[in-house]
Amino acid sequence: MSPGAAPSPGSPPADEDLVRAALAAAAQTDPRDVPVGAVVFDANGRELARAGNAREALGDPTAHAEILALRRAAQVYGDGWRLEGATLAVTLEPCTMCAGALVLARVRRVVFGAWEPKTGAVGSLWDVVRDRRLNHRPEVRGGVLEAECAAVLDAFFRAQRP
Length: 162
Fold this sequence. Notes:
One of its GO terms (molecular function) is tRNA-specific adenosine-34 deaminase activity. The chain has 5 helices and 5 strands. Strand 3 (87-92), helix 4 (96-105) and strand 4 form a beta-alpha-beta unit. The chain has 162 residues and is α/β, with parallel strands linked by helices.
């Protein structure tokens, strides 16, 4: 789906389509950065923003795909920071920083591809977004197009360590 594109009337996009959009964002990532892509959709499935990891490109440790996509979406949707009703699709399970940002932005859903057993904070190592002490807990679906998302990351890391 291209920015601003909407799904067919009456039918929200399938989670697989959301993750495919995130894979397209990952493909645009600077070659020095880990190819993770994230896309934010409004409640009707219209794309609001997309981004790829840019830590190396920007020299910014917080420039994860999720953070950049949330920032861009907040500029065009909601009241400046609340992304209520929105869905974030990302190719890799979010880390603690990104999971915290998803809660604070009040996204409705998080859909991701590959699980991240070393740093994942949406069910693997931690489960930040479903902590009962929080006042907002987004719905989560992981493992969507998991093999495709993992293959992109595997190829990147194989090339880094010949």
